[in-house]
């Protein structure tokens, strides 16, 4: 940037005196160029190091990676049965927050699986009963933790009439395992 370029400015004159703009070329002032160069230096200082530039920011759109799904599979926040059954209905937004999923995915699962039958009001809003949430936990377990496809999960639910009982037993065993691991850590 050793060469100084001429700066072109446009001065518009009142319509009464002249209808064409007048172009004036003048050398840029040294003070202005110094300010511009200082701003460029400041921008370069605030930029991230080369290591971090290569990392992409986490996007919230699109399909999540399998690694991300695995991490989130254990983080669902379903309240215990005593708390869950205190309310008769949960909105789809509350259910989506419990499962850390999009509302659209839960609506899609509703259309795919017959065991999910939330109530709808006249407006079309979905309200999930605690039984529906329990069924959603089962579906979530099949799809996210055990990596079934939609079709595989449907077949599993059709063929295994006692799938819900087996799932409840697995959950209680996992709670016991967590308790024992916590007890071991405290020793």
What does this structure look like?
With 187 residues, this protein is mainly alpha-helical. It contains 9 helices and 5 strands; from the N terminus they run E-E-H-H-H-H-E-H-H-E-E-H-H-H. The strands form 2 sheets. A 3-stranded antiparallel β-sheet has the order 3-5-4. Strands 1-2 form a two-stranded antiparallel sheet. The longest helix has 24 residues. It is elongated and about 80 Å long. The termini are far apart. 11% of the residues are buried. About 5% of the residues have low confidence.
Brief overview, please?
The chain has 187 residues and is mainly alpha-helical.
Rg estimate, integer Å: 31 Å
- In terms of DSSP E residues, the strand content is 5-15%
In the sheet with the most strands, the strands line up as 3-5-4
The sequence of SSEs as H and E is EEHHHHEHHEEHHH
SSE-based structural type: mainly alpha
CA-to-CA gap between the ends? 69 Å
**Biggest β-sheet, characterized?**
3 strands, antiparallel
Could you tell me the number of beta strands? 5
Are there runs of 5+ residues with pLDDT below 50, and where?
21-29
- Principal-axis shape equals elongated
Could you report the average pLDDT, rounded to the nearest whole number? 76
Level of helix content?
A: 40-55%
| Helix segment tally | 9
């Amino acid at each position: 940037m050793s060469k100084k370029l001429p700066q072109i400015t446009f001065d518009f004159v009142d319509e009464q005196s002249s209808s064409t703009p007048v172009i004036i070329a003048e050398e840029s002032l040294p003070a202005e160029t110094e300010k511009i160069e200082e701003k460029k230096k400041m921008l370069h200082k605030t930029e991230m190091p080369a290591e971090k530039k290569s990392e992409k920011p986490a996007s919230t759109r699109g399909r999540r990676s399998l690694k991300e799904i695995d991490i989130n599979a254990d983080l669902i926040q379903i309240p215990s049965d005593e708390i869950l059954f205190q309310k008769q209905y949960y909105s789809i937004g509350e259910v989506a927050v419990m499962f850390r999923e999009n509302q659209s995915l839960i609506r899609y699962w509703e259309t795919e699986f017959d065991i999910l039958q939330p109530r709808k009001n006249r407006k079309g809003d979905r309200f999930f009963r605690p039984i529906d949430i329990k069924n959603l936990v089962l579906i979530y377990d099949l799809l996210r933790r055990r990596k079934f496809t939609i079709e595989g999960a449907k077949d599993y639910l059709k063929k295994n009439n006692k799938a819900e009982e087996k799932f409840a037993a697995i959950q209680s065993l996992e709670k016991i395992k967590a308790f024992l691991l916590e007890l071991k850590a405290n020793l």
